[in-house]
Amino acid sequence: MAGQRYDAVVVGAGPNGLTAAVTLALGGRSVLCVEAAATLGGAAQTGELTLPGFRHDVFSAVHPAGIASPVFAGLELERHGLRWIQPEFAMVHPLPEGRGATLSRNLAHTVASLEALAPGDGRRWEAFAAPYLRHFEAVRAMMLAGFPPVAGPVRMSAALKLQGMLEFARVLLMPADALAGELFGGDGAAWLFGSSLHGDAPLNGSGSAIAGVWLNLLGHAVGWPSPEGGAGAITGALAARLHELGGETRAAAPVRRVLTNRRGVAGVELAGGERIAARTVVATTTPHGLVDIAGDALGDAYVRRAIRFRYGPQTVKLDWALDTPIPWANEDARHAGTVHVAGTTAQLRSSLHDVAGGRLPEQPFLLSGQQSIADPTRAPAGKHTAWAYTHTPPGVDWTAERRERFADAIEKQIERFAAGFRQRVLARHVMAPADLHARNASLPVGDVGHGSYAMDQLIFRPIPSLTPYSTPVRGLFIGGASTFPGGAVHGVNGQAAARAALREARLPRLPKRRGGRS
Q1: DSSP 3-state of 304
Q2: In whole angstroms, what separates CA 465 from the centre of its chain?
Q3: Between 201 and 347, whose confidence is greater?
Q4: ω into residue 462 within 30 of 0, thus cis?
Q5: CA 508 to chain CA centroid, nearest Å
Q6: 199: nearest Cα among 185, 213, 182
Q7: Burial per residue of 280-318, b for 16 or more beta-carbon CB atoms within 10 angstroms, e otherwise
Q8: Which residues contact residue 146 at a Cβ distance below 8 angstroms, ignoring those fewer than 6 apart?
Q9: Looking at the whole model, is its pTM more than 0.85?
Q10: Structural domains of the chain sorted by starting position, each given as residue range(s) with its CATH number in brackets
């Protein structure tokens, strides 16, 4: 079946796909962004998962990298309805007896909370973090840039000088265990570990320290905000910007294969047989997804490298509709957007030990959020929403009984630090790893990180290459969260892939089309 013709087709309408499409449109290309799912958004979607009127972020919910993103800052998304909501505190790690450590944009507040746990811990964190916060723009240029990150290291070298840059390189390579041993004598270690565990590198593994450090620096510098109304607002703003530029979007349009000829890319064929002509295709799929739609053209060597890409741990996620806010014993936790639930450092390690041993922990480490504390649009008047997710071992047979039993264990874990929580639950929604994958093909086995962040993949995503967004096929690029610099909603990957496509400078200018919304 004959289809339409564009300069470029972007496969996947998540944040990276939409950012890639906007970048191509700003470069003067006619663009169509196609999405396999029935709705746009990828991992930035909001829906009523529990009860009517309760708006839950289906996947990504907290976006420090989004508000820090130089890519988003340049796309005028606020003009299209994106409004960031900051909770009073970015994150709290509660401990028994109502104690806890707080991540605040006010560094002094964080220092005081750490000092209360163990004298000296707060002061050591302050001394460690202060130079990076003074030169945060240089750190941001280092951490939120495409590959190879050249400008960031240059700026950091100028800001931190040689010794400071060597210290930062050391942190990049450190295990979180080692850094915590240098900074903390008490449960401040658990506070750092909770942020490190947003990734999947083990606490004794190289690269785990920088994950926690970067997130906590973001908490001080820009906060851990969420969009008003939910993560879907990011999708809506990106799509509106694309439409404004004449670009188009189509949902429920899965790509069956990338079409090629002897010159390179010729377009895409959709599952229903429709063919869309284009001389550039930017795929924001996983590396395995790219092989599925273009493997015959990519060549054996590239395919071998792509399919060895490793995914991170499996995830179980719960969402709740609540009658009241969560009654945390720790006062700061009642005002935090994100709460890391594990308890002491020893208790957190015990949970991780269970998962590493292939067991579902009775007291799992939880990443949890309560966006309605600061954003009343998330729930009916006086009501609230909350969510939590945890990593689980592979190979679990997620029967209906096991899902509900583990969901009960998650609720009991919150109850340890918020007595009476379960009485506030009006409804809950449970997603096991297969459910997350079914909703989003870019989350294999429920890997919300879009690929392991072990050191080799922290840098070389999706394959070892100086041009990781390019492929052996002329006109075919990859720019999803499996590429450098990795996951989180910030658009850097998509922009980097689109810029690589524009640099290829091989597209003739096709007649302009009148853009239409879908």
Answers
A1: helix
A2: 23
A3: 347
A4: yes
A5: 35
A6: 213
A7: bbbbbbbbbbbbebbbebbeeebbebbeebebbbbbbbb
A8: 469, 484, 485, 492, 493, 495, 496, 499
A9: yes
A10: 8-44+230-309+450-504 (3.50.50.60), 103-224 (no CATH), 313-448 (3.90.660)
CA angle 455, 460, 465 (to 5 degrees): 155
- Report yes or no: 201 and 454 within 8 Å, Cβ to Cβ: yes
Q: Which amino acid is at 445?
A: V
Average pLDDT over residues 227-253: 98
Per-residue pLDDT tens over the stretch 135-157: 999 999 999 999 988 888 899 89
Query: Which residues make beta-bridge pairs with 34?
Result: 11, 250
- Residue 147 DSSP label: S
CA atoms within 13 A on the CB side of 471: 35
The three-state secondary structure class of 270 is strand
The neighbour count for residue 173, using CB atoms within 10 Å, is 12
Q: Is 510 helix (H, G, I), strand (E, B) or coil?
A: coil
Helices (H) and strands (E) in the chain, counts: 18, 19
Q: Which of 2-6, 108-112, 205-209, 307-311 has the lowest mean pLDDT?
A: 2-6
pLDDT of res. 124: 98
Contact in structure between 407 and 320 (CB atoms under 8 Å): no
